[in-house]
Design goal:
Strand content of chain A: under 5%
Mean pLDDT of chain A: 83
CATH topology of chain B: MetI-like fold
InterPro entries (chain A): MetI-like, MetI-like_sf, OppC_N
Oligomer: heterotrimer
Number of domains of chain B: 1
Shape of chain B: flat
Membrane topology (chain A): Multi-pass membrane protein
Helix content of chain A: over 70%
Shape of chain A: elongated
Strand content of chain B: under 5%
CATH architecture of chain B: Orthogonal Bundle
Low-confidence stretches of chain B: 1-27
Largest interface: B-C, 140 and 107 residues
Structural class of chain A: mainly alpha
Family (chain A): Belongs to the binding-protein-dependent transport system permease family.
Protein name (chain A): ABC transporter permease
Organism (chain A): Streptomyces cellulosae
Number of helices of chain A: 12
Number of strands of chain B: 0
Chains: A mainly alpha, B mainly alpha, C alpha+beta
Chain lengths: ~300, ~350, ~650
């Protein structure tokens, strides 16, 4: 298994059950991970972009005020051109578009994060259990996974979003429920590989139960994989949120990047030449999606150098 | 399972891909291949059946009474309701509706669309060629472009050209396709500043053209949606080709070939590229199936009269039989293409005995 | 492969595939050179098709007012799909408009003032007991296949609708009260009624040719879209149809009222309104209506454009906020789950007093609408009613708050108003996900009523039919197009329109059932003096206003635009400040006169040249870049 790194070795060394030792090894491996990650320029720029957006999203109430999405007290006229006061112009209600794009980062990032966590959580749960418990349980689980894998995802997500009431939760669920199977496959493969290792045999011989083995031995070993997978899926999820909102399946009262694009389209911004209504939200989506992809790729390459760019 | 595990770098090797293809020694003989084919076909059949079940039950979850949707708020008496229910078989118990649905679906009868009052299969066959034209054209272009650029990139990996290439591919890859489509419409269709609009804003034809003029007209309408699809799709082929090729270039046999004094570019062309294309082939098939379902957005933005637009229209009614039928078609496209990829892969892989 | 990562139609994360190892036959392009060539060829073909198409094909960029052979073509952008081309089945606006153009109806409406004018029938009279109507059918109308159109065709059409449920799908309600329909002579049609019917001069039923349609075996399945041209006798003949691409009609040169001035009429599909507007700007289409109208931004940007006229006409729609009056069926059983607090008229009125109609007009419609008052839009001046100053529910949020206090909905410590059940009040507002105005006003409601201490949940659906019919809403965005005769829009608020049982569907709009209103409705129905009837209708509007179940916020304008270099003149309806698309009649397209075509084709061919040159430069630049890169690549490989 090429994707093994310090974490695994730290685990192997657990024959000496010293908590502090293990802790130090983990810290060491984290430091090693960071040193290797630092070498990936693209990954670093992705990370920087992410931190910037995260900062913007967290400080949005201070930066633009929490009443930026208020329609009754909109400061400008509808669809004003960019100006010193409104650098991106105003939206169809006369709200400050720059403020809305910053505010929209909160929802877009939150939905992306939650959906990815949900997706990876389902995937990991099914992957680990299907890898650990073999037999009919694994067969059934993997058949379900395969079956989800062949579903046309966008179609399925649109269908789910139509079936459920329009809300952020719906979007999170629609994305989470449709994107987990890849993770499940990968995690299961990794689990199978991990479980063949001698120390698992030892742990089993020492009377370790299923729960113990899965949570103490398997899970730490699949965590790096899960981390990379999460990063990549967030990118998918942010785009998916934008897509569903753009198709009008989101909550119309919530400001997100996709919803802004849909607003722009509904207001007729495309044909009336109000391009500044369209460009900022789209750029924001693309930049954040790209940043997550870059980070994900960098993490992947650190964990699995065989795939490296530099070879 | 080793194949699966080994190729499961954090990379997205899924199961639907050829990861499960028989690389093991057991697959050396023709009988083994036949057995493998039978297994794959059986798997595909099971998947199709599962999709059939999903398409029936998933859309039953949409709250509300289809007959009320159908009659759209017109005054309807209890007798008329009963009449409509009977006409569409909605008065039968669920399990019977389900078996009817399955039985008919197997004979190609997908029911009658509520809103168009026409057989679902007719609506689908009407829109399918348009979708295939759009996705087919885009598919050919982005596949060739992806392979071409991916190969170039791998040749000179790490250099500026490669970095620009991959960077652009990754960036376009992160762009929402509908947004790119809208921007293309604003700039190239509507025209911006002194630039006049070069392309039609939407649709597939102006109507009324015949012969060669018709072909040119459709080609003209095809440009922007195809450019959009190509832009967002080619990156994946590029990256896969690139990484496969780079992997290949580190292989021992290449070093040997080089040691034998073969010219570098010859080695690459004769050996490395053909080999590296193997994984790409799989990707190609899977993409083909997937793209059919993935054009919903592009078709919506460019008013392309295809399956995607039809699906969206059907969902908003909701026109249950049409929604079910389209869902079935989308899923079947993916399943069929995945299966084809599975079947072809061992044939291309020389380790499966010839 | 991650088949699941396909949002936006493409993979999100670069996929990796298991890697082949030993040399093998390449499935694609044996050598990279070949692959490269193929790719280049593909790219070039694409670029060429782009470059070539513009100068060669006149269609896309050249004015549609004139075709090559001098045919005058009028192209109209549409978005709505055709549900059916069979007059027995079609209910959508586009389909029924096409039937208006291709078939005759017994009567038509005057574009000047909406009064009834002759159509397929020249004259009509009713017996003293109003139970027998005799129509004189014109003898100068021929079917497009040469057969004479007669009263027999009309009788057959009505009889088919009366006897075959499949043929009654779309217009069955017109004939449900018919006793017997006969054609004693080719020019005479006699309809006998079960009881008097006010709409006998407004029978909007297309008359179809018997000799063609009697061969159809199942009217519920026949969509009339296979054999072209479709036999008809309207001002246009339907010659071609491709779903979601176009509908093509040819002028009927023998039309009795006179041939249309354009030779062809094409409805072309633009599912996206922005695409339609750009197409208008480029001259690909001559007319855009928008669905239901152009957005303020689009109208504003088109207004500055040369050769484009924006027709901003008072609309025939009202746009209202309906309140659930405690939905019930005629048999007294209650339905749905409307909020009980809304049963109090003070609460309904208070809510509407907190709706700033001026902001709705200024911000949402941006001036393309008229502030709401009575139920019937001002365009129908005989019936237009305004509340008196004392009666009017003016915008006054403070007073609204006091009214709610008086109604017993007190605020709690958090400033939320508490219902009788002790829970904070949150109203569910049903909205159409496809209507941007619903969503925009919904956001304003959230804030306006939020100030009052009342929560709002916007429940936006693509299709609101189901919760609506079940009465599962508190408030809802509502709107109807009003006909010249207001009978229909008035009838949908009578108790008689309620569904008979909760399982059935009634004609009711919003479950309103009010005795006073019903009495007035019956009186206006029996009143034959137009002025007296109008006075009663106004009293009904006043009653409706006070009840607060239908709160009219605005009368949206019909905002449409056409190219003046392609359309010289076109009849609006009503003639003064009226709309063009969706008229009651065929006036707009029948009357449209082509503009002098020399002008427009000259302009567009020069555009064509510019476009051609630009495309050529792009292709050349692309080719140049390609070869430069390639040479460099070869050099690189040699180093």
């Amino acid at each position: 298994m090429t994707s093994e790194n310090g974490t695994t070795k730290a685990q192997t060394a657990l024959a000496v059950p010293s908590r502090s030792l293990a802790w130090r090894r983990r810290r060491d491996s984290a430091a090693r991970f960071w040193r290797q990650y630092r070498a990936h320029r693209a990954g670093l720029s992705g990370l920087a972009a992410l931190l910037l957006f995260a900062l913007l999203a967290l400080t949005a109430p201070l930066l633009v005020g929490s009443d930026v999405d208020n329609v009754t007290d909109a400061p400008g006229g509808p669809l004003e051109d960019p100006s010193a006061r409104f650098p991106f112009g105003t939206d169809r209600f006369g709200r400050n578009l720059l403020g809305l794009v910053i505010w929209g980062a909160r929802v877009s990032l939150l939905v992306g994060l939650l959906a990815a966590v949900l997706s990876v959580a389902i995937g990991t749960l099914i992957g680990v259990t299907a890898g650990h418990f073999k037999g009919w349980y694994a067969t059934v689980m993997m058949r379900i996974t395969d079956w989800f894998l062949v579903m046309p995802t966008l179609v399925l997500a649109i269908a789910l979003a139509t079936v459920m009431p329009r809300s952020l939760l719906t979007i999170v669920v629609a994305i989470g429920v449709t994107t987990w199977p890849t993770t499940a496959r990968l995690v299961r493969a990794q689990t199978l590989a991990v479980e063949t290792r001698p120390y698992i045999e030892r742990a089993r011989a020492l009377g370790g139960g299923h729960w113990h083995i899965m949570s103490r031995h398997v899970l730490p070993n699949v965590m790096p994989l899960v981390l990379a997978q999460t990063t990549l899926i967030i990118s998918t999820a942010i785009l998916a949120e934008a897509t569903l909102a753009f198709l009008g399946l989101g909550d119309p009262t919530v400001v997100s990047w996709g919803a802004l694009l849909q607003d722009a389209r509904e207001a007729g911004a495309v044909s009336s030449g109000h391009w500044w209504y369209l460009v900022p939200p789209g750029v924001a989506i693309a930049v954040v999606a790209l940043a997550f992809t870059l980070c994900g790729r960098a993490v992947e390459q650190v964990l699995n150098p065989r795939l490296g760019v530099s070879r | 399972m080793t194949a699966d595990a080994a190729s499961a770098p954090v990379g997205k090797t899924g199961a639907a891909g050829p990861a499960a293809a028989p690389h093991g020694p057991g697959a050396r003989t023709a009988t083994a291949y036949l057995r493998y084919v039978a297994g794959k076909l059986a798997g595909a059949a099971v998947s199709l059946l599962a999709v059939l079940v999903t398409s029936f039950f998933l859309f039953r979850l949409i709250p509300g009474d289809p007959v009320k949707f159908m009659t759209g708020g017109r005054q309807v008496s209890a007798e008329q309701f009963a009449h409509y229910r009977a006409q569409f078989g909605l008065d039968l118990p669920m399990w019977q509706q389900f078996t009817d649905y399955c039985g008919k679906a197997l004979t190609g009868d997908l029911g009658t669309s509520y809103q168009f009052n026409a057989p679902v299969i007719d609506k689908i066959t009407e829109a399918l060629p348009n979708t295939l034209l759009l996705t087919g054209t885009a598919f050919v272009i982005y596949t060739l472009l992806g392979i071409f650029l991916g190969t170039r990139s791998a040749w000179r990996h790490g250099r500026l050209g490669d970095r620009l290439n991959t960077g652009l591919a990754l960036t376009l890859y992160s762009v929402p396709s509908f947004w790119l489509g809208l921007l293309l419409i604003v700039t190239l269709s509507v025209g911006i500043g002194p630039l006049p609009g070069l392309f039609p804003t939407g649709g597939m034809e102006s109507g009324g053209e015949e012969g060669f003029a018709y072909v040119v007209d459709v080609a003209h309408h095809l440009v922007l949606p195809v450019v959009t699809l190509v832009a967002v799709e080619y990156g994946q082929t590029l990256l896969v080709t690139r990484s496969a090729l780079m992997d290949e270039m580190g292989s021992d046999y290449l070093t040997t070939a080089r040691a034998k004094g073969l010219r570098d570019d010859l080695v690459r062309r004769r050996h490395a590229v053909p080999n590296a294309l193997l994984p790409t082939v799989t990707l190609i098939f899977i993409n083909l199936g997937r793209t059919v379902a993935g054009v919903i957005l592009v078709e919506t933005v460019f008013s392309w009269p295809g399956l995607g637009g039809l699906f969206y229209q059907a969902l908003s009614v909701p026109d249950l039989p049409l929604v079910q039928g389209l869902f079935l078609v989308f899923a079947a496209a993916v399943i069929v293409m995945n299966t084809l990829a599975d079947l072809i892969y061992p044939l291309l892989d020389p380790r499966v005995g010839r | 492969m991650d088949t699941n990562d396909q949002y936006g139609g493409h993979h999100r994360t670069p996929a990796r595939v298991p890697l082949g190892r030993t040399p093998a036959r390449a499935p694609l392009g044996r050598t990279p050179r070949r692959a490269r060539l193929v790719a280049a060829a593909g790219a070039a073909a694409l670029a060429l098709s782009a470059g070539l198409a513009t100068p060669l094909s006149p269609a896309p960029s050249q004015a549609h007012a004139a075709d090559d052979d001098g045919k005058k073509v009028l192209t109209v952008a549409v978005a709505q799909s055709v549900d059916s081309l069979s007059p027995f089945l079609a209910v959508r606006l586009l389909s029924t408009s096409i039937h208006r153009l291709t078939y005759e109806y017994l009567t038509n409406y005057d574009p000047e003032d909406n009064s009834v004018v002759p159509g397929f029938a020249n004259k009509w009279e009713s017996s003293p007991d109003k139970l027998t109507w005799t129509y004189t059918i014109r003898s100068d109308s021929k079917w497009s296949d040469g057969e004479q159109a007669t009263a027999e065709d009309a009788a057959w059409t009505f009889n088919t609708m009366m006897t075959d449920p499949g043929a009654a799908t779309a217009n069955g309600s017109f004939v449900s009260n018919f006793e017997k329909v006969t054609a004693p002579s080719p020019t005479q049609l006699v309809i006998e009624l079960k009881k008097p019917q006010a709409t006998m001069t407004a029978l909007d039923v297309p008359i179809v040719p018997k000799h063609v349609w009697e061969k159809v075996d199942d009217y519920s399945k026949f969509n009339n879209d296979k054999d072209f041209p479709v036999v008809g006798n309207g001002p246009f003949v339907l010659t071609d149809y491709k779903p979601d691409s176009y509908v093509r009609l040819k002028a009927n040169k023998d039309f009795w009222r006179g041939a249309p001035k354009f030779d062809e009429l094409v409805f072309r599909y633009y599912k996206d309104q922005d695409a339609a507007v750009s197409a208008l700007r480029k001259g690909e289409v001559s007319f855009v209506a928008g669905s239901p109208s152009l957005t303020p931004a689009q109208a504003a940007s088109l207004k500055g454009e040369k050769n484009i006229h924006v027709n901003d006409a008072p609309g025939r729609r009202f746009y209202a906020l309906a309140t659930n009056p405690g939905a019930r069926a005629r048999n007294g059983e209650t339905m749905g789950d409307g909020h009980p607090s809304l049963l109090d008229q003070r609460v309904r009125n208070a809510l509407f007093k907190a709706v700033d109609r001026e902001a709705v007009i200024d911000k949402v419609f941006q001036g393309h609408a008229v502030e709401g008052a009575g139920y019937i839009p001002p365009r129908f001046s005989p019936y237009f009613w305004k509340p008196s100053p004392g009666q009017e529910l003016t915008y006054d949020p403070d007073e609204a708050g006091r009214m709610l206090d008086r109604a017993g909905l007190k605020k709690n410590a958090d400033g939320r108003r508490i219902g009788k059940d002790g829970k904070p009040i949150t109203y569910r507002v049903l909205c159409h996900a496809t209507d941007p105005n619903d969503k925009a006003i919904g956001q304003y409601l959230q804030e306006w009523w939020g100030e009052l201490g009342i929560g709002v949940t916007l429940n936006c659906l693509d299709n609101v039919t189901d919760p609506w019919l079940a009465g599962e809403y508190d408030l809802a965005f509502d709107g109807w197009s009003v006909n010249p005769d207001p009978d229909f829009v008035l009838s949908i608020h009578t108790c008689a329109a309620l569904p008979a049982t909760p399982e059935e569907t009634g004609a009711t709009d919003n479950f309103i059932c009010d005795k006073t209103y019903d009495e007035l409705y019956a009186r206006q129905l029996a009143e034959y003096d137009p002025d007296k009837r109008a006075a009663i209708v106004k009293r009904m509007e006043s009653r409706l206003y006070d009840l607060g179940y239908m709160n009219v916020m605005a009368y949206p304008n019909a905002v449409e635009a056409y190219r003046t270099d392609q359309i010289e003149s076109i009849t609006t309806m009503p003639a003064k400040a009226g709309n063009i698309y969706g008229q009651d009649g065929y006036w707009s397209w029948w009357s449209a006169a082509p503009a002098d075509s020399g002008d427009s084709s000259g302009g567009s061919s020069s555009t064509g040249v510019v476009v051609g040159i630009v495309a050529g430069v792009v292709v050349l630049a692309g080719a140049g870049a390609f070869f430069t890169l390639r040479r460099r690549a070869t050099a690189d490989e040699r180093e």
